[in-house]
Amino acid sequence: MSGKIQFVTNIEAGDEVEDVFSVKYKKPPKRYAGGLMFEVRVADRTGAINVKFWGTPDETAVRKEYESFKAGDVVRIRGQAGIYKDITEISVNLGSGGFVRPVTSQEYEYGDFVASSEKDVDWMMTQLNCYVDKVENQYLLRMLHSFYSDPEFVEKFKRAPASISIHANWIGGLLEHTLNVAFICDFLSSIYPKLDKDLLLTGALLHDIGKVVEYSVTTNIDESVDGMLRGHLVAGAEMAMRSCEGIPGFPDNLKLKIAHMILSHHGKPEQGSPKKPQFPEAVVVSLADDMDAQIEQYTRAREEAQTDSLWTYTKRLGPIYLG
To answer: What are the boundaries of each domain within the chain?
Structure first.
């Protein structure tokens, strides 16, 4: 087994490319002047890039290449990088020896495609459980233990990313993000003592639990069917409500508050929340969630900037000062 040499973020126009990439999706073949062509979106742990496969008049050869792999496979690509509409892509020319071919699991290293947290996952899980143990309300504590004392849930939670590409998009990312949000909320509860600390910590620890079913992790991080059709806010609120219903005497109002904190933590309808936060603890969880995600995005953009300018720009964040 040999590791990758060429990663997506390092590919520049004019580069000869020959390396392995994970297939995110592919588009059906279509005709062009030289025969058939098709497009593939591939990725590694650093990002994703489009590949255009230019075939010859031999349509059988093109279709054979196209049908030899599927989404989720790892393929070896030989082609040349270029620019199309200001975006770097890879052109593969069958007539010039280019190819897109599937490889076996012995020909790549899993870590080249999906990164893992730089922090020790078991240590982070221990720290998260310290926040669980700070909760004094026995209903909320039992609810938290229904998740974080369940070995099957914990294994899924430790493996899950926090997103596909926006922030903490790595194995252990969900745990890392949740721990950061819990830390922020715990700190803010010391500044604002009128907050219900038990409710606040519970919201912080559960706000993203739906992500254990929202994402599918193979050699790619993709949305599951559940993620596409419901999303983690709805899935997480349902998981929390189901947990409450399994605890005798769980107060109805408290159950609704927990569900609301999960459903509202994206803050606004245009950001995916069906409800805006409607009480202080829900506001704090929403702000802490956004704070952690924003800080990581800006920090990463600054670290990955490849420019001599004092500024860099990303489509999501806009201009970022590097001075």
So the answer is: 8-112, 121-304
CB 170 within 8 A of CB 114: yes
Query: What is the DSSP track for 165-217?
Result: SSS--SBTHHHHHHHHHHHHHHHHHHH-TTS-HHHHHHHHHHTTTTHHHHEEE
Here the tokens at position 112 are: 């080249």
Euclidean distance between CA atoms 232 and 237, whole angstroms: 8
The architecture in CATH of the region 121-304 reads: Orthogonal Bundle (1.10)
What is the DSSP code (8-state) at residue 96?
Answer: G
Class of domain 8-112: mainly beta
**Cα distance between residue 69 and residue 75, in whole Å:** 8
Whether 275 and 260 have beta carbons less than 8 Å apart is answered as yes
Give 65: exposed, middle or buried? Use CB within 10 Å, 0-12, 13-18, 19+: buried
CB 170 within 8 A of CB 124: no
Is pTM beyond 0.90? Reply is: no
Beta strands in the chain (DSSP E): 16-26, 30-32, 35-44, 47-54, 74-84, 87-93, 99-102, 215-217, 221-223, 311-314, 318-321
User: How far is the C-alpha of 90 from the C-alpha of 42, rounded, in Å?
Assistant: 10
Average pLDDT over residues 57-68: 90
Contacts of 239 (CB under 8 A, 6+ apart): 147, 209, 210
Q: What is the pLDDT of residues 131-186, one digit of tens each?
A: 999 999 999 999 999 999 999 999 999 999 999 988 999 999 999 999 999 999 99
